[in-house]
Amino acid sequence: MPEGPSLRVFHGRSRRLLGAVVQRAGGRTRQLDVRQLEGRQLQQSQVHGKCLFLGFGRGPRSGFTTDPESVSPTGSSVPVSAGGSGISGNPTPNLWLRFHFGLFGSVRCDEFARAKRANKRGDWQDPSPRLVLYFPGDRFLVFYNCRLCVCGDPRLDPHTDVLSREFDKAKALCALQHAQPVCYTLLCQHHFSGLGNIIKNEVLYLSGIHPMSLGSQLSAEKLCTLLEHVLLFSKEWLDNKQKGIGLKYHIYQKDQCPRGHAVKRAELGPPHGLQRSTWWCPVCQPAEHDAPSRPLD
Ligand SMILES: [Zn+2]
What we know:
By secondary structure, the protein is of the alpha+beta class. Helix content is 20%, strand content 22%. The longest helix is centred in the last third of the chain and has 24 residues, at 220-243. The two termini are 30 Å apart. Mean pLDDT is 88; it is low at 62-83.
């Protein structure tokens, strides 16, 4: 599922239509009667971790005002903060939608996703949107592969969002020190909102830490290094996304690590919890009792 950096990009796209009134709504979602969105103004877009929140209110039935920051076609002007953005002077939205994206979930602005390959029957069938919001001037927002629901006012905690300037490092370090494998703690959205499986695998490799190392057995220095990699990697991924540069993995889905060692893979997760594919290099990321820590080049 998309991780924090992707959500920021989706947020940037939805912001381009802030102030516009939904003329028509479509899509194949059954989680919502989409007609209730028609005639409402898109007033707010907020992002927290892996969730996107859109706020709608009763707006003017015509007219179109855009947020000055939202006009960039690349979304590059979207600030890195967990806060939302809205229209100054407008009333508080009276209808909020929360979006949670599945694997390959996305938001597009003024374009539909096209089939990248033929299906098993040989048909080139374009992905089917869950929700499409049509605005004046042939503008539209399309939402793919997501769960959506009406929710109350989002209560966001920027202190836990790995892409927020207000991220609370001290609190995060305490969480990492728990006597459980660090690869479980990293995926806990209460402490590391927006951090997903790709970031988990990559930062553990970059820190030279075995995924099953207990946080309580790692030195404070190692945990600080891990935390710095979490923040840096997430930020760089977002910056690259906004420039249209793809991410090159060090370890995720790799057979060999960058130093040429064979990579191991296992499904790891808390008992009775979600097991997630984990890749690690047994040489660069030795278990704590296997070998002394080594500097990573
Ligand atoms: Zn290696």
